[in-house]
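Input record (Table S2, row 800):
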Amino acid sequence: MSEADIAAGILWFGATAYALFGGADFGGGFWDLLAGDAATGERPRALIQRSLTPVWEANHVWLIFILVVLWTSFPKAFAAIMSTLYIPLALAAVGIVLRGAGFAFRKEIEGLAGRRAAGATFALSSVLTPFFMGAVVGAIATGGVPASGDGDPISSWVGPAPLFFGVVFVATGAYLAAVLLIGDAARSGAKDMERYFARRAIIASVGAGVAAAAGLVDLHANGRYVYDRLTSEALPLVILSALCGLAVLLLLIRIKHRWIRPLAGATAVSVIWGWGVAQFPYLLPTSLKINEAAAPDPTLTTVLVVFLAAAVIVLPSLALLYTLSQRDVVGEVDR
Amino acid sequence: MSISLGALPIAEASNLLAAREQMAFTLAFHIVLSCLGVAFPAIILIANYKGWRQNDSDAMELARRWSKVMAVTFAVGAVTGTVLSFEFGLLWPEFMKRFGSVIGVGFAIEGIFFFTEAIFLAIYIYGWKRLSPKAHFWTGVPLLITGLGGAFSIVAVNSWMNQPQGFTLDAAGKVTDTDPVKILLNPATGYEVPHMILAAYIVTGMLVASVYAVGMLKGRRDRHHRLGLLIPLTVALALAPVQFMVGDTAAREVADKQPAKFAGMECIHKTGRDQTEYLGGRCTSTGVKGGIGIPGLDSFLVGFSTNTKVTGLDAFPPKNRPPANTLLHLAFDFMVGVGSAFIALGAWVAFVWWRKRDIPRTVWFLRIISVCGVAAVLTLWAGWIVTEVGRQPWIVQGYMRTADAVTPANGIWYSLAIVLVLYTALGTTAILVLRRMARRWRERGPEVEQGTPYAPPVETVSGAR
Ligand code: HDD
Ligand code: HEM
Ligand code: HEM
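Output record (protoporphyrin IX containing FE complex):
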């Protein structure tokens, strides 16, 4: 394994973490959007707000991590992606601004109208942002990004597979969020909220599954390299993901909520690594290989060293934050 | 949205201009919030420490409120910073393609600091209720380090753009080797990083102090306001003389290593000795018009002798000269002017304190402080204009022109328009939200009166010390 492969692994690690934690944050916004009018939606919204508040900024840093590792380790791929998919990427960036600001402002704004406006901004952008990110990933997987960059700004991502991947991203986030919120509801003793989010987790998991299958069908036609490897080398991971998904579904239906968090996480993780294996050794299938795009070795070593340092410093700190917030030691202060 | 634009010649021709404007605008917006991110924790912790160790409920209440302000500014800083990361690729893909592996070194290290900052800030901001005062204070301390480390790793990247080193290019201009240590510790890091960190503390201190000065002018002259003014103001004023010294070093380094930038800043057309230093004025093709000239001073400042030779713009072909020399010249003078004014202000406050053990109480003093926040931000921008516009036409001094770095994609004017609207809304809402918070606090009165902010009652707290 070359140093470039390790850097690609680090990139995938970041993508996994962002999909899990950032994805769940987006999903929280998704359920916020669908929670109904101010009166009916009050309790689920409060629960979402409480679980998101202390952690969303830290979760969001994974996105920065992905961008930085990508441009540092594979500058050519970064430039190619950015110069081709600038429309969905710019829209995702706008979504990030609206989402973060909407969320941060919502709790400080007084008066229903203002809160509604901020809340709607937050919720709507929580859906659009992951959708465009999914479209970007779909466009890469279907070979829409040429290695030299400046690919077609429209047809590269406006196609069935990228758009279905957009839906998969939204649905997966919604799924992870619902599963997370079941636990948070249980912790605060809100039985009805537990059921509320369990129902929604079921719907989201079915939605994600269907959209993924539809995306696969189009991949068969338009992303043959990735499709072929998904159904051969990466097949075990795909199967693992499906099994975990099914297990969660069964547990949800039988109202057993004990193992659903790790299992739901495993559903997402295995599919992301499945995608990675399917793309290998390409960064941009099928025009740019990992090795061809890689930065000089000293830079890659720096990325590796930084990653190890982060593992020592950041991961325990993150664990501390999650533990404290799960135990309600850190949480919203009354205003 | 961008395809239709391709037909318009204006869009083609001025893509570069739009990209520059967008980069400059989003950076200028972000940098103000970064200053708060770097320096606000220190000021909050001073108040927190005072509140904790001296049982000072006013100070504690300030720390508590400031931390809530920071929750808002940090969120805005995080999203605008993310936009910057996207923009590197969206606006300057050629730059990233060629030098991503070089500048990435700084940004990769930055990642660690961002993470730790976001994590401990969350624990600090949302930990007021349940953590013990001691534990809570200490969860804030890592933020001092992350602020410094974060500023170092990003500003080192900017320094590298000014004085690039630590990489090898092949014949095609591709980077084939990198030396991360040399990249980070380029010669400009030595002055840019400390200058920026000091600027962050000065800007934050002045911004916070000015808010309380306005309050005092409105007749709110309680101890709460006095402390709220005094703590941040002391920080800012104490650092102003240090900033002057670092800036002075920076100017000499720039004269030495980026002579075209320096000639632009000082509007020197002809290389020679005994150069006149002009304060203010317009920079025309025949020299400064309308400024105050001090013969020989410019040469003296560069080499401590009026006999020092200073390179003029005539030493560079027109295509290598920075544009907008009047802007550069005035921006530089403005920065030095405000920096010197802060030192004078510091001397006044120190004198009054020495005589009366108190801050000056006159209306004029408060009026001055109330504009210092805005003045500090304008100074910050002025400094960055000197650095960035002065580096033009280069994006990487001597290696890559900005024109060669820009994206060929059309429609940047559209994205600039969107950004302008979005950021205006963002900035306005942020300020409205902060004002609402302040009003709410005023109406409800200090929350401290209902007991300490920490969950354990006061008795257990003092036992724990
Ligand atoms: C509150 C802010 C502030 C204050 C009071 C000053 N500066 Fe400054 N200056 C900045 C904030 C700043 C900055 C943060 O905006 C810059 C832009 C890039 C940098 O490293 O710092 C800067 C850049 C900058 C540069 C350009 C460096 C380069 O291009 O690489 C010079 C020569 C000076 N400064 C000189 C001074 C002098 C002689 C000052 C005397 C008082 C001074 N500055 C006060
Ligand atoms: C081109 C330049 C820059 C880029 C690409 C950039 C990028 C970013 C990003 C992605 C974030 C969000 C991190 C998070 O989510 O926590 C951020 C926040 C931050 N940035 Fe920047 N930044 C730039 C310039 C600067 C400069 C010049 C400074 C300061 C000296 C700075 C200091 C900070 C700080 C302290 C934060 C923490 C958030 C806050 O307190 O507002 N950045 N930046
Ligand atoms: C440390 C972080 C920073 C980095 C890495 C950085 C990087 C860049 C880059 C890549 C460009 C575009 C290319 C070019 O015009 O040369 C640029 C332009 C510019 N930046 Fe910075 N910048 C930083 C901080 C800032 C800040 C804080 C400001 C605040 C005002 C600023 C002001 C500008 C301006 C005015 C331009 C346009 C220059 C022109 O085209 O005339 N920069 N910067």
